[in-house]
Design a protein that fits this description.
2 strands; single chain; two-stranded antiparallel sheet
Length: 208
């Protein structure tokens, strides 16, 4: 396997050398809406974690934070340029007029949570432009962006952790099932969130 004329061994050594910064940088580039195989790098870090070279938790955290910070750029482009910019130049980031209208309708129907679950389903990185366009508050944007990308990061890193050096099989799984695995993890995260929230609320009610 080669990426940008670098084979697996070179990429593995690069990831091993730069540590968690590499995971953050790979997802940072992808968060800028630049075509980049960030998911492949996450496989490397999963494999490194299986070898005890890096922490599984820190690899996931650094990658998800790197992506979340990078999404500031498309967010502010959408916020400053608004609807005209996305309609006129969206095709350069893979956002056709059809996708624009569909995403806009989802925002109108479901609101802010689309920033989280929309990334796992249909909208990918360009959902950040819409968050800016709708003047979504920054704290909410960063929280829902992190919440949306983390399940996918967990899935990719765990895939690398479990499959190790079986890269051909891992890449085949990514092509076919990456969104499905991330969605399953995302649903688990959401269920845990609401379960914890309900538990805390119940304890607070008893104490009052």
């Amino acid at each position: 396997m080669e990426i940008f004329a670098l084979d697996f061994k070179q990429l593995f050594m690069l990831a091993k050398h730069i540590g968690y910064w590499g995971a953050a940088a790979a997802l940072f580039i992808e968060g800028l809406s630049i075509p980049f195989p960030g998911g492949t790098f996450l496989l490397f870090y999963g494999f490194l974690a299986s070898q005890g070279t890096v922490s599984l938790f820190l690899a996931i955290l650094s990658a998800s934070v790197g992506y979340t910070i990078a999404c500031s750029f498309p967010y502010w482009v959408g916020r400053a340029g608004g609807r005209p910019v996305l309609l006129n130049y969206g095709r350069y980031i893979g956002l056709s007029e059809h996708k624009f209208i569909r995403t806009e309708k989802w925002f109108e129907k479901f609101g802010i949570p689309v920033v989280a679950f929309g990334r796992l389903l249909f909208f990918r990185n360009y959902i950040s432009y819409f968050a800016g366009m709708t003047q979504m508050a920054q704290p909410q944007f960063y929280f829902y962006t992190w919440l949306g990308v983390t399940p996918w990061v967990i899935y990719m890193v765990l895939l690398g952790y479990v499959l190790g050096s079986n890269w051909q099989y891992a890449l085949a799984l990514i092509d076919k099932y990456s969104w499905l695995g991330a969605l399953a993890i995302g649903l688990i995260v959401v269920c845990c969130y609401f379960a914890i929230r309900a538990y805390i609320s119940k304890r607070l009610d008893k104490s009052t």
